[in-house]
């Protein structure tokens, strides 16, 4: 057993875990953050994507002890209080989810994708970058639509803030 | 249509919990004292179990129980059953072999459950499972249905000689043979429908909790139909009487058919919870899902379609071998029979049809309904043959279809179904327009200049949904009725709860069912809660599959709303001293027509519960129940067009456009309907281009992870062009037909018709992977 200390969704947490415990299991079972899901055993499906120190990571590919000292954001920590994150809002508005199981991973991947492409996104790029996330319900059509819409909304929001600051 | 009423594009109420991490799936459930289970599964496709030694495993850290099939049998737990009786054409009943929830003497496929290991943590259970020692005597296995029928093939069950479960027929053999004999042209094909793994993203899971003090069981399970689960667990598997068993299917992460059935794991977790005295949770890992979820499709058919000199179809003869795997799953027998052969008339006026179906045991995972269930197989047979016939006859595929369309309704086909409404020309026209079909020749020439092969293919599908009139399915062998129930509870303050036997696992019932209530009473959908998925809350229901939630489930809600409306009107008439017939309910107001008299909806609701001033003899309260049994199936239909571009150097197929024009009757929420079509098309394109479950000859599943089984990903698919037309369904009060399966039914033949068009070949196997396409190109060139 090893000690694990993390900052998760803005809160400092610590616990102990077997060396073989994956980050996803630590989040789900020790911290009760069950929004992060496990959909496969081979790091293919992306249902477990969280942000570790600002980068999208499949939390089934990382040991809990490896993550110790990191700052983690999960789907539960994405919204600003009662205000949905623009990506969450876009998934709802554009019907980017059906059963909801892949959704947390999709949204965490999408927010990371948008952050890495401040120049904006097009459909081909979104589809290529969703390669690590599998959805069985939506055929991706509305997920792609939602991500493109969120990307545009966030760019507008950023410009608006920049104007205000100026 | 109000902004939240029927037909409105309303964002989903249920989304908030899913997008914020607040969904509650079975794996998220925690019960005090809960332990974790791992199943030891057969590594052989076919073997005798000689000895099971659990001593070492029992002594491992954290282990609380290691249980075998012998103990399960000793406690009187029953075998799994198939709930639909099919009789062979000689009148004998189907030959069902025994399926014990934990194998006792013999294992019949890789993944067959043999032992359950329960420990404090899942890791400990996994470690202990490795220490269970099972001695097997391996037997020869058979994986292909056609080979299983050969003389001397390994025998999967003693009950089914030559592995033949039934040899069934439908239609008029004599008339069909005569049509073929006198035909001006006959198109003949061998058609293979590849085996698929459903792959809902949430793996199956079960949590069994036995409460000793109450002698009561609770089962949380990933089910599309928790009430059917309770019924079967109680009546056939002897787990507990119904009043001592609560089944809860909370948020369920997709089903596509694979979560209809009651599997060994639920039975064993419930039994093991009593046996060990602790709540027992099992969650499948993905490879387990590949091995032990019911698979779909796996048909081999020979087909003959006869035409007269005017290119009118005069007869269709189909001979199909259906692989049902190692055991007969709950509805396995009806899929290749009454959900398949009854749809072989398609959208066409065919005077004579004959179908013969042999269902066969093999040493593979059980095969049952997967999105579309029988109807994709029928559509694939028919639409591949139509396309090939058009090419042989030298006529356009659209013209050949149009010439043979059914144009007047109702239409009785020679294979049971009575189509109630449709306009097949309308969807064909809409699809061709959306696809710019006329411009294809130029696009093909342009692609050729770039060294690419371009092809276009269409598919005109019909399906039967809304399963179904209970008496009709009962006469065809179903062990259950296929009605649906609803209860509408108006609370004293006017808010409303709708309890339904339908189950939502992605379909958006919490929104669409509430839209129905909004349409009726004008109550905002936020004041309407949909309750489902719990046998303690909803008395009985038949669940969600076969695109039945709208046509059957919502029709039951509409019926209960009728009763609530009638009582509310009586109360309002009494309060306002008006005639009952003059009362209307609009936008949350209960009004007397032609006057300015009105009462807010909540005041009528409150009056029902204060009961201070009700009509003489009226019971207090405002709550009504309805059971709805449809009068017919519903018949969604449409036309799909796929255009592909193939790189002859790599064999890679790109779908450059995909058009769907569907007729689903009336639509409650177009946004949700479009989403259903998108998802269905993705699964159909997956079947055509990417997916295939492959066993080697010894029965090992070679495609048992996402590294081996190709799931459609975002960059495999285009955005889809979808549209709908509407011939309202006359058979239910809402005029709806169902939209859940259409995409998966209509798309595979459209894709394969496009690829064969591009390559100039008659047929190509699904999945048409780059290597398959590349080989086909090479075989043609050299």
UniProtKB/TrEMBL annotation, chain A:
The keyword Iron applies. The keyword Membrane does not apply. It comes from the Bacteria. One of its GO terms (molecular function) is metal ion binding. InterPro entries: 2Fe-2S-bd, 2Fe-2S-bd_dom_sf, 2Fe-2S_ferredoxin-like_sf, 2Fe-2S_ferredoxin-type, Beta-grasp_dom_sf, Diverse_Oxidoreductases. Residues 2-78 form the 2Fe-2S ferredoxin-type domain. CDD domains: fer2. SUPFAM superfamilies: 2Fe-2S ferredoxin-like (SSF54292), CO dehydrogenase ISP C-domain like (SSF47741). Keywords: 2Fe-2S, Iron, Iron-sulfur, Metal-binding, Oxidoreductase. This is (2Fe-2S)-binding protein. It comes from Mesorhizobium tamadayense.
Automatic annotation (TrEMBL), chain B:
SUPFAM superfamilies: CO dehydrogenase molybdoprotein N-domain-like, Molybdenum cofactor-binding domain. One of its GO terms (molecular function) is oxidoreductase activity. It comes from the Bacteria. Pfam families: Ald_Xan_dh_C, MoCoBD_1, MoCoBD_2. The keyword Repeat does not apply. Residues 20-140 form the Aldehyde oxidase/xanthine dehydrogenase a/b hammerhead domain. InterPro entries: Ald_Oxase/Xan_DH_a/b, Ald_Oxase/Xan_DH_a/b_sf, Ald_Oxase/xanthine_DH-like, AldOxase/xan_DH_MoCoBD1, AldOxase/xan_DH_MoCoBD2, AldOxase/xan_DH_Mopterin-bd_sf. Keywords: Molybdenum, Oxidoreductase. This is Xanthine dehydrogenase family protein molybdopterin-binding subunit. It comes from Mesorhizobium tamadayense.
